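Entry type: protein chain
Record version: 2
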Amino acid sequence: MRNSLLAFLPLAATLVSTTACQKAAGGENDFENGPATIRGEWWLAVVGGGITGVMQPVPASSDNRCVFGPDSTYTEYFNGKRTLTSTFYVANRPAYPGSPAVPMLAIKSDNTPSGQPYYRVQYITELTASELNLTTGGGCALNSAYVRTKAAGPATTP
């Protein structure tokens, strides 16, 4: 029981720290248009979580980037090659039934065997002018930390 409680504390702290985020157009918690905007180009710097909870830096030789465009476009790049072009939105939603609303990032994808589109959902745990942290939530959450590379615009491809 004690181990279960200790495992729950980091998630509870994350949820408590993000519950104050209520989106107001152009306000400090407006993740699309506010002072700390998600728009722009981000490089994946740290990834991990899962069953071990271990976070590992992404090797500098691995170029994983994403671009959130001003018109809600989303583009992913892996080692200089575009792997996904789609759309995104940010909204406040409960991570779990009955929990307070937290900032949620939804990226439209059709990466399924049938090509049926769906939304890949992650929760924003931190967004500053230079840092974006995301989690899938849940018991074995996958977490990722991005750093801003430059202003919004298309990523360069070789």
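Comment: The chain has one helix and nine strands.
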